[in-house]
Amino acid sequence: MTALAYAVAVALLLVGLAAVLSGANAVKTLIGVELASKGVLVNFVATDPAGSQGIVILLILIDAIVVAVLLGLVVAVYRQHDTLDLDALGRLTW
Amino acid sequence: MTTLTAAALVATVGLAVVAVAARDFLVSILSLSGASVGLAVYFYLAGAPIAAVFEAVVAAGLVTVLFLMMISLTDAETATLIEGRKLPVVGLALGALLGVSLVVWGWLGGLSTGGGSEIELAEALWAERSVDLLAVTVLLFVGVLGIVRLTAERFDATDEPITGDRGPTDADGASGNTEGDT
Q: Do B108 and A76 touch (CB under 8 A)?
């Protein structure tokens, strides 16, 4: 079961990476970041379920804060540029 | 127990893939919420009940509400499809997903779960991680201030007020009042 949990952790990390790499939309990129952080959480819990609860809770809270600030940033960018398409927003995409 | 744990983990990955692949933002966000619920079930079954509660409340609840609020603020409902030139990289990442998962599965298959320490959560949070908790509190405060600033209606107080459709409406109302007075 631990092996399955580790595999799921890697899978979530890579799905998030794929979403960030595809980079078509700001919201999808944020969802990818969220999924990658979930993969980290699964890794912690699979390693030591009882002992890692404290750090897992802190990571969940930090993740929520990061997502909230990034969503605020997305709203601000949308009001400035009227689009969420990352290709249309700037030169940091490929 | 084991079957339910495996089902929760598989559902989490499946919903995560749906969240990335779906075109409709609403489907993506609800799938992300479902993945969080599946993860909370796994946390509970794995022996981390308080982390499960936090995952269900914060990740499946608060973050979902934040995403939905963002959709209502931006009026964006669908995402554009992934460009053709980016598909090989995305496919490569997904192929790496499969390959690395299989390697990890085979590599760690013989390992068994450790017993886990018996640290009380309150002790872990308040005694051993007090600095972390203080840092999270400061981050929370800064995050709230950042959200309020970023989602503010205007960034520059010197901007002129929006002159939209209200002008003619007010003018009509004013003329109507004038007619009524006369």
A: no
Domains of chain A in start order, with CATH, are: 2-89 (1.10.287.3510)
Chains A and B form CB pairs within 8 A to the count of: 240
Q: Is A77 an interface residue toward B (CB < 8 Å)?
A: no
ipTM for the predicted complex:
0.90
How far, in Å, CA of A55 to CA of B148, rounded?
27
Sorting pLDDT into bands at 50, 70 and 90, what band is B112?
A: very low
By the CB < 8 Å criterion, does A52 face chain B? yes
B-chain CB neighbours of A32 within 8 Å are: 20
CB A74, CB A89: distance < 8 Å: no
Q: Look up residue B9 and give its two tokens.
A: 């983990």
**Phi and psi at residue A92, in whole multiples of 5°?**
-85, -5
Using CB atoms, pick whichever of A54, A62, A69 lies closest to residue B146: A69
pTM: predicted TM-score of the whole model, two decimal places: 0.67
Dump the DSSP string for B36-49: HHHHHHHHHHHT-H
